[in-house]
UniProtKB/TrEMBL annotation:
<dbReference type="InterPro" id="IPR039424">
    <property type="entry name" value="SBP_5"/>
</dbReference>
<dbReference type="InterPro" id="IPR000914">
    <property type="entry name" value="SBP_5_dom"/>
</dbReference>
<dbReference type="InterPro" id="IPR030678">
    <property type="entry name" value="Peptide/Ni-bd"/>
</dbReference>
<protein>
    <submittedName>
        <fullName>ABC transporter substrate-binding protein</fullName>
    </submittedName>
</protein>
<dbReference type="Pfam" id="PF00496">
    <property type="entry name" value="SBP_bac_5"/>
</dbReference>
<feature type="domain" description="Solute-binding protein family 5">
    <location>
        <begin position="70"/>
        <end position="441"/>
    </location>
</feature>
């Protein structure tokens, strides 16, 4: 997702669901940023952008392999450094202008340029010339365009990388690599409220914060997955419970992710209007490594070993979550079961030994941070209670910020204690669960390294993986990078999720895809 930080926040949309004209409604939370692909790295905005844009490549829903059901005809390389991207003919943006090679190359350079301060800038670091687009407090960037991008013709462009990167085609399914029309550059602010994409739906009005907007079917859509409805009303909510009440009362058509009191009962209540699927994500407890109390890896390991993940999964989540024992999701290439070993298992004696060895001051409580309105209160309280019981360290809950406020505070090193962190797959490789969250290049705000972890050995292993000659060889190096995370514990894996969707009797063909989103274009309105 987005690369996307997973959230379920949001505030009350209008009181009605979809209308009788073939438009259905869906729950979302408030997006953090304006709706621009290169600056949307969280789940709420990403779900909207997936309706409005079609990427170069897509992923097979069963095995996550690359499929060419998007704009690209092919993405090929003989050395994993120099890539040629060929586009299909006839694609257009919603304003009628053509989707060309420059629609991608110009957008990628804009996204990567540090002065634009886009949250997905990091995703372009492998392209030659990226470093020249990165300025500093004392110097402007040396260039404004990625030197590794060359337009051959309207339907062909080449990409030169800094070194071999075998999984490059996989990354192109992420929204940050979507094309932008010329209209974006004329007025980026206006575009962010009413995006002009190339996807199955188009925006006919501006997105209203706190409310949302309606997108309608794009009749000239070139892809195979044309919309089966007249449109989608994205309704913004601030509380999961409000949305769930609406869907029970007929004021909302589709809801993905449910409040705590519905986890165990929704299947029985909604029957054949319920679906679930393993979510390609991970929920972790992030540690502010910039805080002196959490700079020692032994402190971080101690907190990890003070948590009984299975007890929380059963008692709080009613087994709709699975204890995590790796930094990657089980659905991606490179996942290793039990990679984290005993460091991610309850061991109070060892945890206390490590905490004593580190000289941690137990007399001062810790803050536990999470975003409000998204069903995190109970399980974060359970985490706090276990830390208090197993380590003798008291805690204070800090769960009063909505998601759109919570993320900027992470960017600003504002976490004064461990914090809830979640990541959902952008593309199906272990690399996507490591580099965007823990590499130096991904330090916020250029990426999503909110723990501000900076380890040269970790970055070196990622680089070795990127320079490998095959996906298998790359994956082995990425796993060695994960081993360094396990030793350093900048965050601790907690749970893998389960997407649970419910819907009204007005709609059918509701499916959850392998990236954890509703397949919006397939929904049928009765």
């Amino acid at each position: 997702m987005s690369a996307s930080l997973l959230a379920a926040c949001g505030g009350g949309g209008s009181s009605s669901g979809g209308s009788a004209d073939g438009i259905y409604s869906i729950y979302i939370g408030e997006p953090e940023n304006p709706l621009v692909p290169g600056n949307t790295t969280e789940s709420e905005g990403s779900q909207v952008l997936k309706a409005l844009f079609t990427p170069l490549v897509t992923f097979n829903d069963e095995d996550n392999s690359v499929e060419y059901n998007g704009v690209a005809e092919s993405v090929e390389s003989e050395d994993n450094v120099n890539w040629t991207v060929k586009l299909k003919d006839g694609w257009t943006f919603h304003d009628g202008t053509p989707v060309t090679s420059e629609s991608f190359t110009k957008a990628w350079s804009y996204n990567a340029l540090s002065t634009n301060a886009f949250g997905a800038s990091y995703f372009f670091e492998n392209i030659e010339g990226y470093s020249d687009l990165q300025g500093s407090d004392t110097a402007e960037p040396a260039a404004t365009e990625l030197s590794g991008l060359k337009v051959v013709d309207d339907t062909t462009f080449t990409v030169k990388l800094n070194g071999p990167f075998a999984i490059f085609p996989l990354t192109l399914g992420y929204t940050a690599f979507d094309p932008l029309p010329e209209a974006f550059y004329a007025d980026p602010t206006a575009f962010g409220t009413r995006p002009i994409g190339n996807g199955p739906f188009k925006a006919d009005s501006e997105f209203v914060p706190g409310q949302g907007f309606t997108v309608t079917k794009y009749d000239d859509y070139k892809g195979d997955n044309a919309a089966k409805s007249a449109g989608v009303n994205f309704k913004v909510y601030t509380e999961l419970n409000t949305g769930y009440n609406d869907i029970q009362g007929g004021g909302l058509d589709i809801m993905l992710d449910l409040p705590e009191d519905a986890w165990a009962t929704a299947r029985d209540q909604f029957g054949d209007r319920y679906a679930d699927r393993a979510r390609p994500d991970i929920t972790s407890l992030g540690f502010p490594t910039y805080d002196p109390r959490f700079q020692d890896p032994n402190v971080r390991k101690a907190f990890s070993m003070a948590i009984d993940r299975q007890a929380i999964a059963t008692a709080i989540f009613t087994d709709t979550r699975t204890p995590a024992n790796s930094f990657a999701s089980p659905v991606v290439e490179g996942y290793r079961e039990d990679a984290c070993g005993t460091t991610c298992e309850l061991n109070a004696d060892e945890a206390n030994r490590l905490l004593d060895e580190a000289g941690f001051d137990r007399s001062q409580p810790i803050d536990l941070w999470f975003n409000a309105g998204a069903g995190h209160d109970s399980w974060m309280t359970a985490v706090g209670n276990q830390i208090r019981e197993n380590l003798g360290v008291d805690y204070a809950l800090r769960g009063d910020l909505q998601f759109a406020q919570y993320l900027p505070l992470q960017d600003a090193k504002g976490m004064t204690g461990p914090f809830r962190s979640s990541w959902i797959m952008d593309y199906p490789s272990i690399y996507n669960f490591l580099a965007p969250l823990y590499s130096k290049a991904a330090l916020a705000p250029a990426g999503s390294n909110y723990v501000f972890f900076d380890d040269p050995a970790f970055d070196a292993k990622l680089a070795e993986g990127n320079n490998a000659e095959s996906v298998d060889a790359a994956t082995a190096k990425y796993q060695e990078a994960e081993d360094i995370l396990i030793q350093q514990m900048p965050s601790t894996p907690l749970f893998y999720g389960l997407n649970q969707a419910v819907w009204s009797d007005r709609v059918s063909d509701v499916k959850i895809d392998n990236t954890g989103d509703i397949v919006l274009e397939d929904v049928v309105v009765s």
